[in-house]
Each structure stands twice: as structure tokens, then as C-alpha cells.
Amino acid sequence: MESAATGEKSGKPDLLSQMETIVAEHETALLRYATRILNNPVAAEDVVQNVFVKLFQGWKKGTHPSDKLKSWLYRVTHNEAIDHIRRESRLSVLHQKQAQEKDGNCPDGVHCAESDAERRTMVLEHVHSLHPAEQQVLLLRMEEGLSYKQIAEVTGRTEGNVGCILHGAVVKISKKMARSQNPEVRSQK
Q1: Cα–Cα distance between 47 and 43 in angstroms, integer?
Q2: Can you tell me the distance from the alpha carbon of 100 to that of 11, in angstroms, rounded to the nearest whole number?
Q3: pLDDT tens per residue across span 10-42
Q4: Helices marked H in the chain
Q5: pTM as predicted
């Protein structure tokens, strides 16, 4: 009985130490990713907290982090964020708000000087109009800098499918940006 208790005591700090290390290593990137999906830093904190709770609950004694941990964390973060959106049913409100803000920032659609940072911001504003799979792939590539192979591991898709989804998302956003910047293109659609 004492040896089991002693084993638990010595194993517990090791488990806590492992969890602290994992959280310290991945929390910032996961918060950034969830914030981009949700467009809400407070909700992103809740989502990432849930991810780490799931990790802690599923962690077996003696387990050590593997190469697949990062992919698993991103996948669970994505799923939790999508579940949050579904629960809150706020996706349509975000679309409307962003469209109104965009129209107010550049009313004539022509005289809009843009820096690289402004273009990046505009792209990220349009991300919420994409299909969730396109959002996921685009954000993992743009924001997290993951390779096609890493994105494929996170999403459970093939590298070719990741490339195809990414290309489609870029084309859609390019068209949306062209329409929002040029009234002639906007009137043609």
C-alpha cells in the first residue's frame, strides 16, 4: 500500500511537469489558431483550456509526448472551436459585422492604399466567409506556417487534398478582395 502511494506521489509531479511543459510549448500557437477561427480571444482561451483538459484526462501514466502530439492538439483545437461556433450560433452575425466594417473602411472601393499588413488583415477578415475546411487549412498555413505534410496530419487529409483546398480558398479570397476593392467587379457579379 505504501509503495503504491509513494509511486503515485513520485509519478504525479512528473505528470504535472509533463503537462506544464506541453502547455508552455503549445499554448500560444493554439490560442492564436483558435482566436483566428473564432474571432474572439476570450472564447479561444476557453477552447484551448478544454483542449488541455482533454489531453490531461486522456494522458496515461508513463506516457511521453510523441511527434503526433502537435497534430492532435491542432485537430482537437479546431474541433473544439467549430463546436463552440455551432453552440453559440454566431457565425452569421460575424459575417454581417465584418462586411459592414469592410464597407466603412473603404467606401469608394478605389482609393484604398494598402500595405502588406493591411492586405494580410483584409485576407484574414475574409477567412470567416470560407468553408470550415478551407478556414482550417488556410489558417494552419498562413498563421502557423505548417507545411502541407503537417497540415495533412492535423486535418487527416492527403497532402494533395490540402493543396487543392488551399488553392480553392486563395482563389475565393482573391475574388472577394477584388470585388471589395473595385466597384466595377462588384457590379458584374
Answers
A1: 6
A2: 54
A3: 446 677 888 888 999 999 999 999 999 988 899
A4: 2-38, 41-58, 69-88, 91-105, 116-126, 132-142, 148-155, 159-181, 183-188
A5: 0.53
Here the cell at position 35 is 482566436
Complete domains list, the chain, with CATH = 1-91 (1.10.1740), 98-189 (1.10.10.10)
- 62 three-class SS: coil
Does residue 162 contact residue 152 with C-beta atoms inside 8 Å?
A: yes
Calculated CA dihedral for residues 35, 39, 45, 48, nearest 10 degrees: -50
C-alpha cell at 16: 504535472
Dist. CA 39–CA 84, nearest whole Å? 12
d(CA 186, CA 73): 40
pLDDT at 7 over 50: no
Residues 6+ apart with CB under 8 A from 129: 95, 172, 176
Query: Half-sphere exposure of residue 187, counting CA atoms within 13 Å on the CB side?
Result: 4
**Cα 119 vs. chain centroid, distance in angstroms?**
19
- Number of residues written out for the chain: 189
